[in-house]
Design brief:
Elements: E1 16-18, H1 23-32, E2 36-39, E3 53-56, E4 65-67, E5 70-74, H2 79-86, E6 91-92, H3 104-109, E7 126-132, E8 138-142, H4 148-151, E9 160-167, E10 169-170, E11 173-180, H5 184-189, H6 191-195, E12 200-205, E13 213-218, E14 230-231, E15 254-256, E16 276-283, H7 287-296, H8 298-301, E17 305-313, E18 328-335, H9 339-353, E19 359-360, H10 377-387, H11 396-402
Parallel strand pairs: 1-3, 2-3
Antiparallel strand pairs: 4-5, 5-9, 6-10, 7-8, 7-9, 11-13, 11-14, 11-15, 12-13, 12-17, 16-18, 16-19, 17-18
The structure holds flavin-adenine dinucleotide.
The site of flavin-adenine dinucleotide (FAD) has 34 residues, from strand 2, helix 3 and strand 9.
């Protein structure tokens, strides 16, 4: 197998790619493979999902079932596919990431998130999941089961998640508006007011004299003003000056949740990207100080940066969620695709964020091990050892995280 991740900055070393079309076929492949992983939509930026053998879930039946406030479907579906299947049923998910082309299995494995003070990450919508463990057994875990909170953000380390049940709610529309030029003084002086000014709020910046833009996504009546920022009079891309053709509609025009909560349109499927991403999460109470610390190193960041995004997420109970029991603020970096230069900048970013015990996004590029920042990591390692007795899902990335655990 010769392939890279979506960004093209990681080449898989796996020698085989399986595409089972039935659960029994999948179980036999997993049970026979010495070392194996699922490959989702390949949107991670590291070797987190690599192994000797990979399994794509693309040929498994999607079987979308909507009942009792939940939707159940094959974990290999992308959020775009799920959204299309949910629309005729009149239901929606609570949130989405910046683009809907990411697989559900891969997203929940790494606690992928959108934004919103009161919105948990995408893994928090999971009500149950079905897992094929390394001996080929099928394990079903539901919210309330002892292992459930440890298994949802599973890093791909526990088994193959074949089906997922998520909470759904009545279909809703969202209006998106963009404000430009919010000053740092206004953002840092009124941080809570800015991030709570809509259902989902994203602040885009290149760490210059002011922030670039604030994207507000509202489910109700939008508020009229945002401190000293000006309403944009034209459509925008998250990177100021880039053609907005791929960006979801703005200027307050109402549209379906799945076509406003992501920044990028559902009908435009980017097959690869000239970028690398990193993201760090700090406790809400540290956000202003952490942003100030990053502004101090703006000169080290800017030369390799395309854009940064500041977002918020609500606390949850999932052991390896970066938002475990704490409301968090994420500072995201879309870098140019120059790994060595990005790693030099990351060393500065991680040093600046060191006082804040910043947790990196599991799916993005980071340098220092976050093991000490996860109080439930030992419990997770024990769960992984129990579900994956023969270590078939362990890979180099996981060895570095778990070490001798
Ligand atoms: C353009 C772009 C935009 C992004 N936007 C956001 C964003 O807005 N918010 C955010 O938080 N992140 C974002 N990300 C990061 C992305 O959501 C995560 O990296 C996510 O894990 C990618 O999912 P995937 O299916 O592509 O995973 P892959 O890279 O294919 O796999 C990720 C991990 O999940 C495991 N895995 C995948 N499927 C399964 C399964 N069914 N069972 C068990 N394990 C599985 C893999 O083994 C691997 O360990 C973005 C990435 C890109 C490239």
């Amino acid at each position: 197998m010769e392939a890279t991740n979506w960004a093209g900055n990681y080449a898989y070393r796996a020698s085989r790619l399986h595409r089972p079309s039935t659960l029994d076929e999948l179980r036999a492949i997993v049970a026979a493979a010495p070392h194996v992983r699922v490959v989702g939509s390949r949107h991670c930026f590291t070797g987190i999902g690599d192994s000797h053998e990979l399994i794509s879930l693309a040929a498994l039946p999607p079987d979308v079932v909507v009942e009792d406030g939940t939707a159940t479907f094959g974990a290999g579906l992308t959020y775009a596919e799920v959204a299309r299947a949910l629309e005729p049923e009149g239901v929606a998910l609570h949130n989405l990431a910046s683009l809907p082309h990411i697989s559900v299995g891969g997203s929940i494995a790494t606690a992928t998130h959108g934004s919103g003070d009161r919105n948990g990450n995408l893994a928090t919508a999971v009500a149950a999941l079905e897992l094929v463990t390394s001996d080929g057994d099928v394990v079903r875990l539901a919210r309330g089961d002892a292992d459930f909170d440890g298994a949802v953000v599973g890093l791909g380390a526990l088994g193959v998640v074949t089906r997922v049940t998520v909470d759904v709610e009545p279909f809703y529309d969202v209006r998106q508006r963009v404000f430009e030029g919010l000053s740092w003084e206004a953002l840092l002086g009124h941080f809570d007011a800015v991030t709570s000014s809509a259902y989902s709020v994203s602040v885009f910046t290149r760490w210059g004299d002011a922030t670039d833009m604030v994207w507000l996504k509202d489910r109700g009546e939008p508020a009229g003003e945002l401190f000293d920022a000006r309403p944009a009079t034209v459509e925008r891309h998250p990177i100021m000056g880039v053609d907005p053709i791929r960006a979801t509609a703005q200027q307050g025009v109402a549209g379906p949740w799945y076509d406003r909560l992501p920044h990028f349109k559902i009908e435009f499927t980017p097959s690869n990207g000239e970028e690398i991403q990193s993201e760090y999460f700090v406790a809400r109470g540290d956000a202003v100080a952490a942003i100030r610390a990053l502004r101090e190193i703006g000169d080290a960041i800017r030369p390799v940066l395309q854009v940064s995004e500041i977002r918020t997420m609500a606390a949850d109970e999932l052991w390896l969620s970066p938002q475990y029991r704490q409301d968090m603020v994420g500072v995201h970096f879309t870098w140019i695709r120059d790994q060595a230069a990005v790693e030099r900048a990351l060393a500065e970013v991680e040093a600046a964020l060191e006082p804040f015990a910043a947790r990196p996004h599991w799916g993005k590029l980071f340098l220092a091990s976050p093991a000490a920042l996860y109080e439930r990591l030992d419990d997770f390692a024990a769960l992984a050892a129990r579900l994956d007795l023969r270590g078939a899902f362990r890979n180099d990335w996981l060895e570095r995280l778990l070490g001798s655990r």
